[in-house]
Structure formats: structure tokens, C-alpha cells
Write a structure and sequence with these properties.
Layout (H helix, E strand, L loop, with lengths): L2 H34 L18 E7 L6 H9 L8 E7 L5 H13 L5 E5 L6 H9 L7 E4 L10 H5 L11 E10 L6 H24 L10 E4 H5 L13 H11 L3 E12 L5 H27 L5 H11 L4 H17 L11 H4 L2 H13 L4 H5 L2 H10 L1 H13 L32 H21 L5 H24 L9 H12 L3
Parallel strand pairs: 1-2, 1-4, 2-3, 5-7
Antiparallel strand pairs: 4-6, 5-6
Helix pairs in contact: 1-6, 1-11, 1-13, 2-3, 6-13, 8-9, 9-10, 9-16, 11-16, 11-17, 15-18, 17-18
């Protein structure tokens, strides 16, 4: 390949990545502007309790000794007719969680709560397998799902179930509530994650609903119509992706079922306080969503939905493709500099598109808390660095998803940390460093070298862009190593205290 052809090839790759990033930025801007122009308050239907149908609450858990009591107690306290409420704890645990569950279930059984344990000796199909395995024994017409890190409010079902009732609601397949945060202010990391999640729920989910576009079930904090799950044209829970929730919700909508998102109904959950846990969660979401795109992209493209809805759905399913694009831009930039090409020029037009994500997060925080929005939005620069630093982690996940590489369902560890006095470092669930941190360290050096190269070639406009990469990867490495070095240090709640507190709680209150 001649020098001219090499320059052209590199420029095309760079321009395609820049174009992709620009399109996603414009999509975020469009969603935000669309939401601002369509204020649609939640309908609040009500129904006499005598008309309320039966509900089964399913709690899929795996090794959750720190949080399982909180979850079971919150579900046992749900304000719903007891003769129409069933709770199933779907336990795949291999540690003392199983014993804790048994004691807590016995506690609530003695108080008249219909609660049962479904324990599997293996994890075939992981969460999807557990949900599919338990469905035949569920008594409810509707299925509520809460992951281990959630603490649903007592009035959750009373606020959700009426939306399914009546002939006008017969095609509603699932209702999703907005996720709240039990530990938003625990650390800078949790504040950044809360900012990102709020943007997804308050703007993205709401805007898609306002536009009539498809959107996903988020896996927890929602309720399914059982008939929808069991509809032969939907196909039930399937374990061929790591995002069984996104997969099922899109198959349901392709089959004609309708979703409903309730932005004013909050289901609080715990945010991962450890960076490695957050990265593991992101890896699973990235790989699972790309698997879903690969599985259902053709069906979406050839569906009867209007063209804008089909395009919006593809953007949604392919959202994590952003990270390989970001990584590609970094890897190509030094080569462009050496070839004498200005790498900033293809990015110049992105200035308008880049307004989309910051505006999206600002609108989300202003809608949630007009008085505190600016203080919360101020964490955007750190969130930006986290997003840049995640591009290796998530690019590997995307590659595995596209290549069809299988792998285990790696859970996100939960530690029951809600205020700054709580510590997760002494827990046996805390994650240790993985080899990917070495790649992030090398990329931080690569980005720094690119900065030096940009200075040498007088490409000053490229330097801020490259510094974001340098700082992002450096932040990943510094936080991962720093947190790993602190493992085993017993804070106010060391590993022994974790175990004692959990076992004491399990004996009753």
C-alpha cells in the first residue's frame, strides 16, 4: 500500500469514527430538545383494591449477603392485598446468603407473608435462567422484578398496577419506574454514576416515550404482564444475551406490546462504590446491548415501525458502539500527526453535536432538583473523564458481543453502603485488579505521547482532546490501584463486622 493510499485509509477511518460520535451527540441533543417540547405529566389511574389482580414479586439473587435482608424486608412491607401478593426469592447463591435468606423467609412466613425460596444448584442461564425457571410456579398475573441492590417503596405496586388495568391498557406489556439512588452522595464516583443514570431515565427514557419510540426494560424496578412474557411471539426469557431485560423488552415491542415508563415513580437502588464493580457492570451492559443489537437489529430494521422509530431503536441498541469509536480516534491520531494530517479538522464540526450530552444531563438534573441541579451537574467533567477512561473496557465488551464470544454473567457486587460511615473495602465481595488495568496504563502513556507529538507538530487544537484521554485513562488506573491497595483494610465496617451485622439482622428485628 502506497503512502497516499495509507493516508486516505487512515483519514477515512478517522472521519467515520468522528461522524459516528457526532451522530450520537446529535441524537442526545434531539432527545433533550424533544423532551423540552413535550411535557407529558404522568397519568395517575387508580382502582379499588378489590379490583387489584394477583402479583408475584421475583427477587433474582446470587451471593448477596450484605443487601438481601434489606431487599426481602422492603418487599415484605409492600402495601398490597396479602391474598394477592406472592414473593419468590430466586436464589442461585453459593455462600452464606442462602442461610440468611432461609432465616429471613422463615421470619416473614411466621407473620403471614406468602414468600418462598426457589434455589437452583446451578446458574444455567444466569438471571434469565432463574426468571424462566421460576415463572411456572409464579401465581401472579403480573410479575414485579427487583434486583438485590433495590429497596422498593411500600406503595410501589399500588402506583404501578392500575396502569395495566382497563381495556385501553390491555396491550401494555411492561411498566418501568425510574431508578433512584440510595447512596448518591457516598463518593465522587457514585455522584458521577447518579448523574449518568439520571440522564438516561429522566431524559432518554422519557423522550423516547414522548416520541412513541421503543425503549428498554431496565431489568429491575418494574412490572411485567405475565401474558406478555408467555406470548409465543415474544418467546419469554432467553439467556443468549447478557441483557435479557433489553432483549425481552424489544421482542415484546416487536410483537405489538406497548411499554410504559413512569418518571415520577422512583425505585431506589444502591450504586456501585468500587470502580472495578462499576466497570464490570458497564462491561456486562455493553456486551449485552451489542448482543441484543446483533440478535434483533435486523428485525428492528424490517419492522413495521416508522423509520424514525427504527433509527432511534438502532441508536439505542448500539449506544455502546461509542466506545470503540473513541478508542479508534485515539489510536489513529498519532499516525495522522506523523503523516502530516491535521487530526482536529474532521472534529471541528462536532462542536454543535458535543452540546447534546452536557445539555441532556443538565436538563435531567434541573427537572429532578431545580435547587441542586447545578451542584450535581458540576460533576460532569469527572463523568466525562470516566467515559473516556472506560473506552477500553467497553470496547473489549463490544468486540466480544459482536464476535459472538460467550462468557459468564459476572455480577456487580453490592455492599450495603449508603452513607460515608459505611465501608466496602473489608468485604469478600470486593474485586481485585484485572489485567485490563495494564492496557489502560499503556493507553494513558500512549495518549500522553500523542500530546507530546502534537506539540512537536504544532497541532495545538488536538492537545485538549488528547489530554482528555490521558486524564481519563490515568483516572482509571489511579482509582483502580488505589482502591485495590486499600482492600482488606477494615474501616468502620470490616469483613468480620459485615458478617456479624448480617447474621444478627437475619434473626429478626
Amino acid at each position: 500500500m502506497g503512502a497516499g493510499a495509507l493516508v486516505l485509509l487512515v483519514q477515512i477511518l478517522y472521519a467515520l469514527a468522528a461522524l459516528g460520535l457526532g451522530l450520537y451527540g446529535l441524537h442526545a441533543l434531539w432527545l433533550t430538545l424533544h423532551l423540552l417540547g413535550h411535557r407529558q405529566p404522568n397519568a395517575s389511574p387508580s382502582a379499588p383494591s378489590a379490583q387489584f389482580p394477583s402479583v408475584t414479586v421475583q427477587l433474582p439473587v446470587y451471593n448477596e449477603r450484605h443487601v438481601i435482608i434489606r431487599l426481602i424486608d422492603a418487599c415484605a412491607a409492600l402495601d398490597y392485598p396479602t391474598d394477592r401478593l406472592q414473593i419468590q426469592v430466586l436464589d442461585d447463591s453459593t455462600d452464606e446468603t442462602t442461610a440468611i435468606i432461609q432465616r429471613r423467609v422463615d421470619f416473614w412466613l411466621a407473620r403471614g407473608i406468602d414468600i418462598q425460596i426457589i434455589h437452583r444448584a446451578d446458574r444455567v442461564g444466569y438471571k434469565a435462567g432463574a426468571l424462566a425457571d421460576a415463572l411456572p410456579s409464579a401465581a401472579g398475573e403480573f410479575i414485579a422484578i427487583f434486583d438485590a441492590d433495590f429497596e422498593p417503596p411500600s406503595d410501589f405496586l399500588f402506583n404501578v398496577i392500575p396502569h395495566f388495568l382497563g381495556d385501553h391498557a390491555a396491550q401494555i406489556g411492561f411498566v418501568q419506574a425510574r431508578w433512584g439512588h440510595l447512596n448518591r452522595d457516598y463518593s465522587v464516583l457514585t455522584r458521577c454514576q447518579a448523574l449518568a443514570l439520571d440522564g438516561h431515565f429522566v431524559v432518554e427514557q422519557s423522550a423516547r416515550q414522548a416520541a412513541g419510540y421503543p425503549f428498554g426494560f431496565n431489568g429491575s424496578g418494574g412490572v411485567w404482564r405475565r401474558a406478555c412474557i408467555e406470548d409465543p411471539s415474544v418467546g419469554g426469557w432467553q439467556a443468549d444475551t447478557l441483557c435479557e431485560d433489553l432483549d425481552l423488552s424489544y421482542r415484546a415491542q416487536l410483537a405489538g406490546w406497548r411499554p410504559l415508563f413512569l418518571p415520577d415513580l422512583v425505585a431506589p437502588a444502591e450504586i456501585p462504590p468500587q470502580l472495578l464493580a462499576f466497570k464490570r457492570q458497564q462491561f456486562r451492559w455493553a456486551k449485552g446491548s451489542v448482543q441484543t443489537l446483533k440478535k434483533l437489529g435486523g428485525a428492528v430494521l424490517h419492522s413495521g415501525w416508522p423509520l424514525p422509530a427504527r433509527l432511534a431503536a438502532l441508536f439505542h441498541l448500539g449506544n455502546y458502539l461509542l466506545h470503540p469509536m473513541l478508542l479508534l480516534l485515539l489510536l489513529i491520531t498519532p499516525l495522522l500527526l506523523l503523516l502530516g494530517v491535521d487530526p482536529f479538522r474532521p472534529l471541528a464540526w462536532l462542536s454543535v453535536a458535543s452540546v447534546g450530552p452536557p445539555l441532556l444531563y443538565a436538563v435531567a438534573q434541573h427537572r429532578l432538583s431545580p435547587r441542586l441541579w447545578l451542584r450535581r451537574w458540576a460533576y460532569l467533567p469527572v463523568l466525562t473523564l470516566l467515559g473516556m477512561g472506560l473506552c477500553l473496557n467497553n470496547s473489549v465488551a463490544v468486540w466480544q458481543g459482536l464476535a459472538g464470544l460467550s462468557g459468564p454473567f459476572l455480577r456487580t457486587p453490592k455492599f450495603s453502603v449508603q452513607d460515608r460511615a459505611d465501608s466496602w473495602r473489608g468485604s469478600g465481595y470486593a474485586l481485585t485488579l484485572n489485567p485490563l488495568v495494564l492496557g489502560e496504563a499503556l493507553l494513558a502513556l500512549y495518549a500522553l505521547g500523542s500530546v507530546i507529538l502534537a506539540v512537536a507538530y504544532d497541532q495545538w487544537w488536538s492537545i485538549p482532546f488528547l489530554l482528555l484521554y490521558t486524564a481519563g485513562f490515568a483516572l482509571m488506573v489511579t482509582m483502580d490501584v488505589g482502591q485495590a491497595l486499600g482492600l482488606g483494610r477494615k474501616g468502620r465496617r470490616g469483613s468480620t463486622l459485615f458478617r456479624v451485622v448480617d447474621l444478627v439482622k437475619s434473626q429478626g428485628r
